[in-house]
Amino acid sequence: MSQTPTRRQMPLVPALQVVHRLRTDEIVVTTMGTAREWPRFSRHPLDLHYIPSSMGQSPTVALGLAIAQPLRKVIVFTGDGSLLMNLGCLVTIIASGAKNLTLIVIDNGVYEVTGGQRTAGAVAGVDFAGMAKSAGFPSVERFDDLDEWQRRAAATFELLGPRCIVLATEPVRGDYFLNVPGPIGPRLEKLRESLRK
Known about the structure:
The chain is α/β, with parallel strands linked by helices and 197 residues long. The chain has nine helices and eight strands.
């Protein structure tokens, strides 16, 4: 029986911190594993940690924000497992005509917050960057090396939108706990207040 070849991956937290350093006044939507890590170094009023009972919905939530706030940039993180549950969001983003959205796919090959089970995408060797290109994203980049991501991130965020960035990251083993940050209603109201300022 042949074994799946080892793929290059970068550590998750330093990869996220690259985005944090470049972030100015963009709305940032996180979910699942990124919603666990991002709040450890970001307390921005335009952070929305979207943790519903169903996976895969953060790209469409972010798209709604991008459409409602066309003069503001929106960054959304989704996991590879989450994206598999809502592949239709890729074509929905393109069909919407929104240009101010950056979709960042954290491709670590596992369902990180439910116990680290391997995703079907990892087993099948799914090319998420290829999927985004096929859906019509004008700008698609994939990174599996932290140094290269650090060097090219700023320029990547300036590419024609909507853009898709796939980051091949290592799973955060042994830390599967996801602290839900309270009811979504009050958090959405807080975001609304921040957007009015």
